[in-house]
Amino acid sequence: MIPFLYELIEAKLVTGHDYPLRAISNSLALLIPTDDVQVKLDDRTYDLRRQQMMILRDSDCEFRLLPTEPGELGEVYALVFRCYRLSAKDDDQLRYSADGEHLPEHGRVIDLTRHTNDLLQTALHSANQDAHHSSSRKKHEDLRSLMEALTANDLYGAAFPQRDRAIRQAAEYIESNYDKPLSRSTVARLTGFNESYFSSLFRKETGWSFGDYVSRVRIDEAKRQLLSSSDIAGDIAFKVGFSDSSYFGKAFKKCAGMSPSRFRTLRGATRIAAMQFYGALLALDIVPLAGTREVLRSSLLLREQLTKMTVMEEIGQIELLMALKPELILVPSYYYNIPDVLHALEAVAPVVSFPWGRLNKLEEIDELGKLLGREVQAKRWIDVYRRQAKIAKERVRELLSANETVGLYELWNGNQWMLPHWPVRSAYNVYSSLGLSSQARIEEEVLGPNEPSHIQEDELADYAADHMFLIVPSDEPESYRERLMQREIWRELVNRRGCRLYLLSLNEFWLDDGAALLKQLAILVSLIEKEVEIQRFYHKDIQ
User: What does the alpha-carbon distance between residue 396 and residue 528 come to, in Å, rounded to a whole number?
Assistant: First the structure.
């Protein structure tokens, strides 16, 4: 079943007018420039650049287009459409109702990746080709592919800046050596910069001064130790790198808004606002009090379990959080990259930063259970997972031989594929729980060093496995099979080398913690079972 349908009304050129333009009533629109422009929308002015688009959700809004530099205005196109959500399912029919709430907010400027730009050009082309055929299925399908990609791959793009490589190495060094003496001059020397230049570059790239960053890393580790151990605060201060326990107490209170002893009483908190880790909290029998729409959108398998969670439209929606009065706010460690949001959250409630992308999925549950006083629930869930993983492994062993290889691949941009490492995208399920051998080069270049890799599509032959799990940006992943098979590389892999393809939805596999991991394991096994049945039927039919 397709959860969302998109009806393309028209694609039109909207430049050439010096008067306010108005969107079509009861519709939405995407503005797409061929050159940099300014958009005057309501009482605000937006810079809309090439490789960007803007969404208009208020169909009665007026907008005016102006060049960013004196001169002629470049072309700006609008894709005008309506969106419908699946609202009811009967035995013999599906019913859809107009609904665009899952889309980015009105006036949102969206960066186009190489992949989404390809889809945009396809949608524009098919819309213009079928301009006189409003019911043409292809143009609606092309628009749906574009919108699915835009809403699926939008997860916290601003949280992962392309830092200077030396500064990234400096931050990683601090996070690995927080318990040792750390001076600005020493870390600057390690990165090859003089101290003064390093200091200004570090602040520019991270948003933190060097001293504040070091202090923050140490205090966040102290928070985790206060919640997960019975060690006295003075001992924890020395363990995390503070040489003076009195200074530690002052620094801790300034950051957390309370003393270390008061913070420790939050160990049994249940009113937890979470910026990620929904599946892990559910595994610990905690329903997050609040979370962001971006993470919810990428946690499709958990939607039914999260119906009571208050949804924040943006990660910094502070007023809503204040009204909910959370006891604790849980953030992933990459929130260091957005210090303004982190500081705003700390004004609402104490914040705990939890490592992201460093632990395997069972370690993640175990550590989070310790932090929240849920060791019993953590152990119970891990036992359940291990039993299910054993059953899954035995089932796969019945269907496939042990020497068959497996690989996990995510469509990244255009014809580029990302090879996920251990901590993400259900790699733990694929490479550990199923009991199959990982493809040799993936083992050597990705799993061994535990680092993701990106390859071009024409390199896939060197990374292809007998069983290839492909994560694609669609809630109906099978719709991608036909597209793939139009390309020579995929025909080569499937028809000549016998590779089996299993298509997975990005919104179901983007996040793979806790409860999501169990559901993903069931999906993987089900796909293998289905593929084996198809092959048996095919060979029987031939014979």
Answer: 8
Angle between helices 210-228 and 195-206 (to 10 degrees): 60
Residues 353 and 226: their CA atoms lie apart, in Å, by 13
Residue 8 pairs in a beta bridge with 81
Question: In sequence order, what DSSP letters do the residues of 317-331 get, joined into one string?
Answer: -HHHHHHH--SEEEE
The letter for the amino acid at 382 is: I
Q: Kindly provide the residue ranges of all beta strands, DSSP E only, lying in 361-412, ordered along the sequence.
A: 405-411
The amino acid occupying position 329 is I
Cα gap 436→397, rounded to integer Å: 8
Burial of 399 (0-12, 13-18, 19+ CB in 10 A): middle
Eight-class DSSP state of 443: I
Q: How far apart are CA 207 and CA 75, in angstroms?
A: 37
Q: What is the pLDDT of residues 75-108, one digit of tens each?
A: 888 888 999 888 887 777 888 888 887 787 788 8
Both tokens of residue 169?
């190495």
The length of the chain in residues reads: 543
pLDDT at residue 26 above 80?
no
* C-alpha–C-alpha distance, residues 443 and 431, integer Å: 9
Task: State the Cα–Cα distance between residues 16 and 76, nearest whole angstrom.
Answer: 9
Residue 310: is its pLDDT beyond 80?
Answer: yes
Classify residue 432 by burial, with Cβ atoms within 10 Å: 0-12, 13-18, 19+: middle
Q: Answer whether 169's CB lies under 8 Å from 148's CB.
A: no
pTM of the model: 0.76
Give the containing element (helix H, strand E) for 53: strand 52-56
CA distance 85 to 98: 6
